[in-house]
Amino acid sequence: MIQSLAMDYISRRAFELIQSRLRVEPVVALQGPRTVGKSTLLGEVARGHGVEVVDLDEPVMRSAVTADPAIFMAGASPVCVDEFQKAPVVLDSIKAELNRSLTPGRFVITGSTRFDALPRAAQALTGRIHVIDLLPLSQGEIDGATEGFLEVAMTDPERLTSPHRSTTTRSDYIERICRGGLPLAVSREGTIRNRWFDDYVRVSLARDVLELAKIRQGALLPALLKRLAGQTAQLLNMAAAGRAAGLEPRTAETYTKLLEDLFLVRRLGAWGRTLRSRSGSAPKIHVLDSGLAARLIRLTPAKMARLDPAAMSDFGHLLETFVVGEILKQASWSSKVADVGHWRTRDGHEVDLVIEHYDGTVTAFEVKSAARITGKDTRGLQILRKALGDTFNAGFVLNTGELAYRFDERIFVAPIDLLWSNRS
Hints:
It contains 18 helices and 14 strands. The chain is α/β, with parallel strands linked by helices. A six-stranded mixed β-sheet has the order 9-10-11-12-14-13, with helices on both faces. The protein has a five-stranded parallel β-sheet with strand order 2-3-4-1-5, covered by helices on one side. Strands 6-8-7 form a three-stranded antiparallel β-sheet, sandwiched between helices. β9 and β10 form a beta hairpin. The chain is globular and about 65 Å long.
């Protein structure tokens, strides 16, 4: 069983990334879902440099900064601004400061909406800002383990094979999926966690969406989010999701983009520019946090533990969303990742996640809920390997089994928990 956790302090991998970027970039922007820990991390950065945080979530501070942003943005470096989107006028003052000097490490700003979703932000600091996504806690961050799986998979995949057996059970994976990685959800259990997820969605859709855009049918957003959650880890069917939520297709598309800008869902685009004649182009949809996905579609650990076809299908989709999310968290810390996506041939063969390296080579991942892997389970990876030739670095089938081993040339099978265990 997974132990309940004390969430007083969790070391975030992004802290080191922020510090390294501050040495070369004038502005570092930290963006991610609400309650993911941006303010905590910004406070840690501020304390390390002996400066205060300009917290724009505080009404009094927001009023003062809005009245005279220049004086606040001229402070000692780095000027740390929390929830900058609450007073976008600060961006003009930041730009004015940068016009005088492009000294590295001048500003760190955070926001709960995507930076490029705000027109003023996109225009004011183009070319002068480095954006870092702070995603929900990884399983390694929760467990206190330093994850190296993706780095090793991209550089020396053979090293991941091992005779050591995984002891993680199906029930353990289900618990981790339903827990997710949002810090305030991780620290809760059972009905208390479910209530927190419900409140999280309500506040995000009632307050944050209204701050981001004026919409006419806001009452239908919860229904759309639930319909999208029902498609998690599947090809996005916007028409079906919109129709079920009572929205016209164009409106559904606009509202889905809003949900992406608030880090509630992500579209994983089709990968394979050079393989376009053989591959489909539809994106997959993933709820950003697996725990939130499970709650949105009312899937409890008890329901997922059943072995009937419907429960097994639901478990498989949520498992893929969970695993893809964990790999993309590690990708967000890596300097080697150039592009990500899923790959699917027109006749239905697919690979759940493709990581393209900056050198043009590729590492690919397929997620399976079964404990035993057959040649059929590796078919998508085999086809991709043949299509790419020498640029195919390695393919992994991540499953609920116990052993990590080489299945075929440059194709490996590994337990899912190798993503966050120290066995790599």
